[in-house]
Each structure stands twice: as C-alpha cells, then as structure tokens.
C-alpha cells in the first residue's frame, strides 16, 4: 500500500473506539488469520508511493500550518465489500476536510486514492470470511448489543452514535477531534504497519 497519512483520534477516544472494534459476533465464522487484526482507528487522508517514506519533511510541509484540530462527525455505520472497508463509520465531509484532502494531494503531486473518503474502519475481515457472512455478523452484533444509534441534527442531517461503554455502561461517542496526523508505512500484515512520524495540528 505504501505510505499513508492518517487522521487519528486522541488516546482517550482511541481507547473508547477500541471497545467497539473489539466486539465479536456470538456466532463468528472467522477462520482467516487476516480477520480482526488490531489497528489504530483512523481516517486515511492520503496514500502515496513507498518512496515518500524518505521525504517525510516534504509530506509534513503539505499539511497547512493553519489546519488546527480537525472535527470528525459520524454519520453512519456501513458494511463494505472490501477488506479495508469491511465495516466502517462514514465521516461527515466538511469543507475543512475536503480542502485538506485536496491541498495535500495537490502539493505532493499524487492522485487521490482514498475510496469513500472520509471513513473510519472498525474492523478488517478477510474476503473468505466475508463470503460466509462475517462482516454482516459483526455489524448485526453491534446493533444487538445496542452499540449503534441514529439521530438527526437540527439541520436534518442523519448522525450516528456509538455506545463505547464497557460492562453495560453507556459511553456515547458521535465524533472526535483529531489533533495529530500520522505518517504510516503500510506493508505486509496489518499489525506490522509502522508509524514513521506524527504531525501535530496544535501549537506546542
């Protein structure tokens, strides 16, 4: 996959979202070792050739200094047809996110390859397991456990909330504010991916 830029939640929100990502269907049929790897929740902002790992200063310079923290609002939870979009949260495409996406690709001179931008995957499930219904089983388990709820904004737009509470407690997450963008080298098994650098979006 090469080098990717990830918009990431902070440690607190990462921990909360990790509880959703750790849910497993009661009747799981997952057999592949490629299903359900552990990974940092993220929104892929950009994907570029591997040689950019040696140009991290250039990559960092593509992120405008004026960016600031990025608001990421959840709009739906969907089941996908691709390993890296097995079950994912669709994120509201704000003007700020759209402008950042366009700017980074233009400055770096790479074509966008970020399907369904912006989204945040909850799990990766192998195609063979998906053919046996595993992606849908995970999604249905979230619904059964009351982990997904929908509501409407004042504007009428639909929003989704995730109940990230443990042991029957409610802990609702419907958005996160990203204060960092990570440069991640994505080669080989998911759990071997390497964070090369973290770019802060807030002043020190």
Quickly give the structural class: alpha+beta
What's the total number of strands? 11
Main sheet strand line-up? 2-1-10-11
* Strand composition percent: 25-35%
Question: Which regions have little confidence, pLDDT < 50, spanning 5+ residues?
Answer: none
CATH classification class: Alpha Beta
What's the overall average pLDDT, rounded?
A: 95
Name the overall outline: globular
CATH-level-4 superfamily name: Cyclic phosphodiesterase
Query: Whole-number radius of gyration?
Result: 17 Å
Pfam families: CPDase (PF07823)
GO molecular function, one term: 2',3'-cyclic-nucleotide 3'-phosphodiesterase activity
Protein name: 2',3'-cyclic-nucleotide 3'-phosphodiesterase
Organism: Gymnopilus dilepis
Please give a structural write-up:
This is 2',3'-cyclic-nucleotide 3'-phosphodiesterase. One of its GO terms (molecular function) is 2',3'-cyclic-nucleotide 3'-phosphodiesterase activity. Pfam families: CPDase (PF07823). This protein is of the alpha+beta class and 204 residues long. It has a single domain, classed as Alpha-Beta Complex (Cyclic Phosphodiesterase, Chain: A). It is built from 5 helices and 11 strands. It has helices spanning 11-21, 56-61, 95-108, 127-131, 134-144, and strands at 2-8, 43-48, 70-82, 85-91, 119-123, 148-152, 158-163, 172-173, 175-178, 180-186, 194-200. It has a 4-stranded antiparallel sheet. The protein has a 4-stranded antiparallel sheet with strand order 5-4-3-9, with helices on one face. Strand 10 and strand 11 form a beta hairpin. The two termini are 32 Å apart.
